[in-house]
Amino acid sequence: MSLDFTFNSFLCGVLDSVRINPSYITESPMIRLRCAQCLGVNGLLFLGSTLLQGYFSSLLLPLYYLFWIFPLYVLSMVLSLFWIQDIFDEAYEISNKKREVKVKLAKISFFDTAANMIFRKGIIIIYMIQVMIVSYLPLYIGDVCSVILFCWLYSYNCFEYKIFALRLNTMESIQVFETNWAYYFGFGFIFTILLYMYPGLVNSGIFALFFPFLVLVSVEASPPSNQKLLEMLNAKMEKSKIKKSLSVFSSTVKQEFSDTYLIRKMIKQKETGLIPSRIQMFWLPRKVYSFLIVKMQKFTTIE
What we know:
- The chain crosses the membrane at residues 38-56, 62-84, 105-133, 139-159, 180-198.
- The protein is an all-alpha fold and 303 residues long.
- The chain contains 13 helices and no strands.
- The protein is globular.
């Protein structure tokens, strides 16, 4: 891919990450309730409790963490998983109604939902191990690589609900992320930089505080299609010499020539260039997943 194509994809991701549609909150009592619950538990209780740790002595602080902070952290994470699932399901149905798409989310049992969440979190845990390994690289290489990997991780966290709704399997979802790496890097960029300034449990509290709204953003967000990139490149060409050279044609012929030229340019940009078209940031989770699938198949065959 070319630098121009990559930057446009990155920019689309950055813009999409801050483009929330307030109509989801205003139109749905369910979303308002779940967002309020997330803000209350994650913001007031958990994040507020972490900010109070400065008032405890060094002797009482471990007890404060053991009997209040950590249990509250686990409780907030578990409750948020189900609340955010409700937020996404409701927003997804509203979005489909607006686009007149007749898609009904299948009702999934509590057990299946919990099992799916555990599996998805397993992928994230393996990814976190990969980030930890990379962080030990010398000089500042490890820190820079960790920030980049966290950008993709937070994007995956936000889009995993949409991936599940689209019924993509693990390998398909990973391939989507790796082939649209510039977009998802941009989507998680601002959020990662914000969290990087607040280490420890404060980081986790801020993440849980904003996460419901990022999931709402993911309902309408998607990697840029050829048409979207075509519009961006068309905007750039308005100031280029190509526009002047086309001025002798009629507006219809001019538009047709411009679109044909840009489509060919985009295809060429995708196929050539020093920038890779795919970055395998989920290499370790993919290997572990493949290994487990092979073992499970052998086990079921023996049975």
